[in-house]
Amino acid sequence: MGIRKKTNKNPPVLSHEFVIQNHADIVSCVAMVFLLGLMFEVTSKFAVIFITVQYNVTISNNGPEETAVNHFHHGIKDLATIFFYMLVAIIMHAIIQEYVLDKINRKKHFSKTKHSKFNESGQLSAFYLFSFGWGTSILLSENFLSNPVSLWEGYPHTLMPFQMKFFYICQLGYWLHALPELYFQKSKKEDIPRQLVYIFLYLVHIAGAYILNLNRLGLVLMVSHYFVEFLFHVSRLIYFSNESNQMGFTIWAVLFVVGRLLTLSLSVLTVGFGLSTAEKQGFDLAAGNFNIFFVRMTVLAAICFTQAFMMWKFINFQLRRWREHAEAQSLKKKQAPTKSKSKKDKANGVNGVNSHGADSPRSRKEKSS
């Protein structure tokens, strides 16, 4: 994310600079149009599609006290809801940037490179922390951690509780909002390909778990992954304020490898073994059942490819860090002898002057006597 320079000059209306400077206000006005649509009966049916979660199914529990439980499934109308919460994500991004990150940047006086990385880590650490807490609360309330068999038992999991569906809607909305933010934040050309890659990977995996009704497995993998990524970006924020403090990167490195192993283990256990022995086999688009060999192998191949790609990037990152550390240590060793030599030269120079040129204080006393 580039540095946004504030100038006193007002750019022309609808110019690139005008849109970039006022994008949060423009998006807020668009979101307000949908909210105002709820006030009128003519437009409320249309506005509800964008604001509220769609495809509600009420299930009554037969028991001593009959209660109704609301569940949700996915459908084409979810695209409208995702679009609205993408607008909300753009607004929240601008609020965090202006009222938190920009104030810290002005105090710290970071360089251009550190400024860009600090903004990226600040935004992502806030998102990862929020998503990790929200996802963990869903896992605990639905007892997915205490009963791992529920990850594949009863597939297809077409019905989701409200919190789980809303979680997926917000996740897709956030990662979609990252695309226009590349323009709004004036991202550097050399940073855009890297950011597009991880945005694309997030969207493909989250949307794949949502559409293929693997939402329980996707939720567990997202929570574990977000925790590890949160540690990385917090460690980078700490490193920018104190470059000698790199303990966070060491903890992150260990948990990163553990996270990759956990992701592969759960994926193979759920998709490779659990779904292959499930009662409902076959492909049924209407019922949301995608439990066939080709789909299972495609899902596993995509997960394994992504984990291998992340490990390759991780190894390159660690090698670069070790190389930089070794170069810094070698520079320190080279500087130490030169300093000692310079001190010896100065001492020898003073003694040489006293012996060949100027008289020492003792000789001057002897001459005077």
UniProtKB/TrEMBL annotation:
Membrane topology designation: Multi-pass membrane protein
Keyword Transmembrane helix attached: yes
Entry annotated with the keyword Transmembrane helix: yes
Biased composition (Basic and acidic residues): 359-369
Every TLC domain range: 116-325
GO annotation terms (biological process): protein insertion into ER membrane; SRP-dependent cotranslational protein targeting to membrane, translocation
Keyword annotations of the record: Endoplasmic reticulum, Membrane, Protein transport, Translocation, Transmembrane, Transmembrane helix, Transport
Main localization (coarse): endoplasmic reticulum
Record's subcellular location: Endoplasmic reticulum membrane
Residue ranges of the region described as Disordered: 328-369
UniProt similarity note: Belongs to the TRAM family.
Name of the molecule in the record: Translocating chain-associated membrane protein
Species for this entry: Austrofundulus limnaeus
Gene: tram1
